[in-house]
Each structure stands twice: as structure tokens, then as C-alpha cells.
Amino acid sequence: MRLCLLFFFIIPFLQLSAQHRVSGRVINSENGTPLAYATVNTSEGTQILTNIDGSFKLDFSESPVEVNISYVGFKPKEFSLTKGTEYILIRLDPSTESLDAVRITDTQDKAEEIIKEAISLKKKNNPEKALKGYSYKNYTKFIIDNARQPIKVKTDSSGTAIETIVNTGRAYLSEKTARIDYNKKQGRKETVTGIKTAGFEEPVYEVLALDVNPFSLYEENYKLFKTEYAAPLAKNALKNYSYRILDTTRTERPAYMIYFKPKREKVVAGLEGILYLDTESYAIQKAKAQLLGAIRLEVDHHYQYFPKEKLWFPVYQTTTIKPGSGGKDISVFGGVISLGTVQRKNNILNRIFTKSGLRPDLYLTSTSSNYEISLNKTERFKRASSETEVLAEAKKQDRDFWQRNRQEEFTSRDEATKIYVDSIIKAENIERQIEVKKSMATGHYPIGFWDFDLSKVFKFNNYEGIRLGAGGKTNNRLSEHFSLGGYAVYGLKDEQLKYNLNTAIYLNKAKETSLKLGYTDDIQEVGSFEYLTGVNDFALLEPRFVNISFFYHFREAYAGFTHLLTSKLKTEFQLGRSEISQLSSYRFNLNGRTYSDYNITEARLSFLWRPFSKFLRTPEANIMTEKAFPKFTGQVNQGIGNVFGGDFSYTKLGLKIEHEIKRLDQSRTEFIAEGNYAFGDIPLTHLFHAYPNNPNREEILRRFSVAGRNSFETMYFNEFFNDKLAMFHIRHQLRPFRIAPGFNPELVFISRYAIGSIDNKERHQNLRFKSLRHGFAESGIELNKIFAGLGLSAAYRYGAYHLPTFKENFSFKFTFQLQL
């Protein structure tokens, strides 16, 4: 039945033969180079521009039709086309007069003058700068139609649905309606009033975070599909782009047609295209941007003039991706899994690939229409903590709603695609594939109602030796209101079983409000401090864990409560009682009494604040759509004596600030500052170390292991403990060295510093250690991604804790960054 319907909807396309289409290309007759954005006019009144590679497609009904092709610096050419023509190659001859050196320089200088003027007037022309506020409604249609084309997509953990749809389903269709409100004081808010996704019971919300249709070309960086490009009207645009005047339009409000092309393509990601700049206001009337290589990416922006406000406002945009003709790889979707964690990256490292020579059939298209536009609004709106909010009724809108709000026709081709998508989603079991990939990105594999925890299967450390086990938690198949979980592991060296049992009761999933209960019998590293809140990263490899030998044993019963105060602020409270026993000769002496075993009753309050990240609030979840810095993690631990048998009273404070500066040339600088402070009667097990990662062995090669990202590589295990500690890390990565396809190593310079102290050191018996009162310093270098994610690092220790010999101060290790 579905095939019959599909046939029924496809038939009309075969009958649309009233118009004839001819493909062509415009090149320089002297050297064969393509002429991008040459103007093609016909006697029927059609005007189009050639693409970056000089190609074009022209539709006409009359036969013959007169065609005129012109390009600045070249002699125009006129000719006739008939319906018998399928393809035409046009060679334009350079004009001697136009190619005069002075004339070219004047043209370039004039273009640069126009661009400088447009940049200086951005505040006047950019709607978000010029207006007090605005509102409008938006309709977006997003289609992936890749049934015939073997294009391969890779994404990060936040894009597994898109990757699965494209690579397996090869087809996708969604529609969205929204209301956008903006004012200078409150910023921008998008309220999604309608959303539907063909073939899926629940909408694929990830599409809303793809930046498929960026609002403005006035920003410093132009973001498209999570990739940032240098904007053609940025402050430093003349450094990144060259410009040329192609023509001026003959409309009611004429515009300069300015061609722009990247100057430093290997250094800064840029686009090639054309800006239509108003000859009076220098505002953008229209724009076209392209990338051409393994794929063809095209973006068209259309603006409407509002006389009262004397402003051009964006009203329509199309974005398309098609198979290219080969050449350079184009970064579009993607991400990278780095050492130890799943990293959500804004700079895209994975690519869409395709074979050369494929027919240019449509692969992806997104159209976005703005309507019911109201400018200079001053009314305040209800501000949510998330930038985008999906209303509960959005996925339940009926047919009448969509007919009222569609700003373009839902064509028979769209209906055919919808039928095709429905069948593909079911036949390929796409929803199951998405479920598996999302779970694996967080370290789980779902089987039925149980998500197996992959991190519990195998580990190794110096105390337990090989640590084998299994664990996981129940998923929504058992219940949407609670989960049951736990793990059981066994150390082959210490021959001890460790385990955990836990449950979470979900009170409000959208606000991540839940009640947690659990019991753990396991070991913990002495001096470690763990924050309750933070991104739940799946550790592919934990470099430090392998070399740890100083543990204590604990049995803890705990109860906790988590809640999102806002989309950007997550909190968790936990109360636990632990029974501690030593696995070494360490003893704690307090007021003449020596403790090897003791009880700890501890209340913990933790927060994770990401003020600059962007979030999408749906009825079911709070989804981070853009990770931004700085972010802040903090925690207070209060030891409570004489409550539930607690032996000690103390206070521990921790605050970590993480910041990252990313540049368009793909270099970046990362900063981490962390401070820990403890006072009261507190044993060494609950104090602080500085994350040492140097095994306690003499020879350099015997210490050869895997370097961490935030650990001190020349600091030996158990060398320093503190009750007051401050650490600072800085990593500066140069832009990748593009040596060969697939071989782009990254050079990183690293500097780390830690300072601390400890009071009442004499309380801690049977253990030799120092504090960091004089300050510990090390610097290093990494060469990452030499082969299959593997690299090398070296670091050197200097300053107050410099040791007598070179080999004692030097570390040489692997780095590991797995890129998928």
C-alpha cells in the first residue's frame, strides 16, 4: 500500500516537462578557471548567479531563449538556447581594458571601502543592535533525502540521532513552528509551538540545536551546523577575506554585489559568496554563501526592508547540502571523543564524505520563513532559563494547526518523502539504533529494560590488580518514574568483592528533580575529592587509576536530592554515613586517641553552574545545545560529629572554574583553576591531593604510562597531601599541522602550578609526605594524534620541589585521544 502511495506522489514529477533545464559552466577562456557568481540573464526575465565552481542550472520554457552572461573584467557573451540543449560550457574572454592593473586595484579598493563602511555601520543595521526589541513567528522545514547517495556522517554524542538517520535511514523530514522574542535587556527566547518528525513517536529534538538556519550575518563568527566560520562583516574581515565588486542591482533600492573569498583558508575557516549591500545604508539586503569540495553547501539569506524603522530584517533562508565534485573535505556535523570523556565540542572535527562524480541530487535542505514580524517592541516577556523552550502541546498539534502555520506548500514530494521516511524508520529500526548510540555515549549498552554500565566491566590498579565486574541501571522500559541500579566487581589481586545498590525516583524529569538512595561497599583513593554535580562522562580510559595504590575501604549508606534551579544551574544535596577502615598502616591521632577505623557522617551540597551555555527545555528533558565557558563547579562537605555515630566534625570546600578560548584557526587555550579548603578534625583519607600521575619508580621508562588532562605528570603518588590547596592548569594548543589527509597532529604547551599547606601534620601517623607550601611547578609539551589517537608527552618539574637528578624530574608518556 505504501509503495502504491509513493508511486502516486512521484508520478506528477515525471509529468512536469513544460519547463526545460539546462546545466552549464562558466570559465575563463585563458586558463580554464571557473568564474564564480557570473550573472546569467535570460529573455524571460530570469537572473541567476553561477556557483563557486562556475556551474549553474537554468530553467526556461520558451525555445529558443536568449541568454546573456556577464562578469566583471570579462567580455559579456550572448547566445540562444533551445530545448535540445542539455549542457553548455561558456568561455568568457578577459577584457583588456578591465584587466588594467590600476583598474583592478581601484575595484578592489572600492570593494574594501564599501566593506569598511558596512562594518562601521553594523550597529545601525544589525537588528539586535539597532532595535530595542522585536518578535516574529518562524516556520522551518528540514528534509534529508539521501536514498541514493552514500554520504557518510559522523557526529559527537549530542548528534547520534542525526548520524543514525543519515547513515542508516537516509531520509528524514521534520517541521517546526516557533515564536521568537528579543529585547536588549532579556536577550533572545525561542518558544517552539509545533514540532513533528516523520516516522518517530517522539520528535528528534537534536535538530533544533544544529544551527541550520543562522539568524544573522552581522555576528563576528558565522555558525552553521555547529561549525564556526569567519563572518564576512566581522571586525577583522579584511584580514580573512578578499572582496570584489561584481555589479549593482537595478532595483528600487539598489545594492552593491560584493563577492567575498577566504584569504587564509588553511588557517581560518571561511565561506565564499556574495553580499548585496544597500547603496544608501550599507545594510545586507541578500546574501549567498557556499562551500565546495567533497560536498556542496549553500546558504541563501533574504531580507525585507521596513521603511518605518529604515531597517532590513531577515525573512527567509534556505540551506542545502548536496554531493560535491570531490576535493577538500568540508566540516559540518561532528565532534570528538577525547581522553577519558565524551567531549561536546563546538569546533567540528568530523566530516561528511562523498565520492566524486555523483549526480548532484538533493541531500539536505532546510527552509526557514519569518512572518508576523513586529519591530521595536519594548514589552518584556516571560524569560525562561533556557534559550529554547518546547511547549508541551508542540508535538500534539493537529492537521489544521499545520495548515494555518505553514509558510510554504507541503508538496507532493514532501508527502512522498514522509511516506518513505515512515517505512525506513520502521524497517531499519532507527529508533532502537538511536537509543543504543545515545546510551553508549554515556557508557551504557541497553538490553531490554537494563542499561549495562560499560565502565564496570574491566579496570586495573596497583592494589586490586585486574578489577572485573558488571553493573548498570534500569531504563524507561521498566518504569519512567524510577530506576534501580548497582554494580558488583571483584579484584583478582586483593580477592575482595565490592558492590553498590541504588535507586532514583524521578519527581520531575524536565527539571531533573529526583530522590536518590544507595549503599556502597568499595574502596576509595586517599585524599580524593569528588564533586557530586558535573557532566556524566564515560571514561574510555582513566590514566591515573592504573597507578593508584593508596586506598581506604568504606561502607556508605546515602540519600540524596537533585534539582535544576534553572537550566544553567544544577544542584545536588546528599547525606551519607560511612564506615571507614584502612588498607595501609595509616593512623589518625586526635586528642590522644589513635584511629585506624572510624565513622564519618557527612552532608554534601554541590552545584554546577554553566551561565554561558545554551539549553533546550522540552517537556521531558533539559538538553545542552551549546557548551560555553566559563563554567563553575562547587561543593561544601560538612562532617557532623555525634550524629549517626559520626566521629569527627569538619568542613570541606571546593570550587573549580573551567574556561576555554577557541579560535577560528582551530587553536585553543584551556584554563582550570581549583581551590580546596578544609578545617576541623579531618583525617588524611578526606583531605586533598593535587592529582599526581607519576608512578613511584626510579627509571623513566618504568614510569611510562598514559598522561591525564588535568593531572601533575611529574608529581609522584602519595608525595603531597594538604588541607588547603590551590591548583592552576593552562593548556595552549596550536592549530593542527595539516601534514597529510588524516594526519593532522596537534602540538600542545602545558603549564601547571599548585600550592598548599596542612595544619596539625603530626596527627597523621605512619606515613611520610609533604605539603605544597612552597609551590609545585611543572611544564610540558604534547604532540597528540600522531597515530590513531595516540601521541606523546613530556614534562619537567622545576621550582621549590625540584629533585636532584634529571630523571627524577622528567616524565615521558603516551597521550590518547580517541577520535570517532
Mind sketching the topology for me?
Blueprint: H1 2-15, E1 20-28, E2 39-42, E3 47-49, E4 55-60, E5 65-70, E6 77-81, E7 87-92, H2 101-120, H3 122-125, H4 127-130, E8 133-145, H5 160-169, E9 171-183, E10 187-197, E11 221-224, E12 227-230, H6 237-240, E13 241-248, E14 255-262, E15 272-278, E16 284-292, E17 295-306, E18 311-323, E19 330-331, E20 336-338, E21 341-343, E22 351-352, E23 364-375, E24 388-390, H7 399-405, H8 412-427, H9 430-441, E25 444-447, E26 450-453, E27 458-461, E28 465-474, E29 482-491, E30 496-508, E31 513-525, E32 551-566, E33 569-582, E34 587-590, E35 593-595, E36 598-609, E37 614-617, E38 622-626, E39 631-639, E40 650-662, E41 668-680, E42 692-694, E43 712-716, E44 724-733, E45 746-757, E46 764-765, E47 776-787, E48 790-798, H10 806-809, E49 810-816
Parallel strand pairs: 1-7, 10-24, 24-37, 42-43
Antiparallel strand pairs: 1-4, 2-3, 2-5, 5-6, 8-9, 8-23, 9-10, 11-12, 13-14, 14-15, 15-16, 16-17, 17-18, 18-23, 19-22, 20-21, 25-26, 26-28, 27-28, 28-29, 29-30, 30-31, 31-32, 32-33, 33-36, 34-35, 34-46, 36-39, 37-38, 39-40, 40-41, 41-44, 44-45, 45-47, 47-48, 48-49
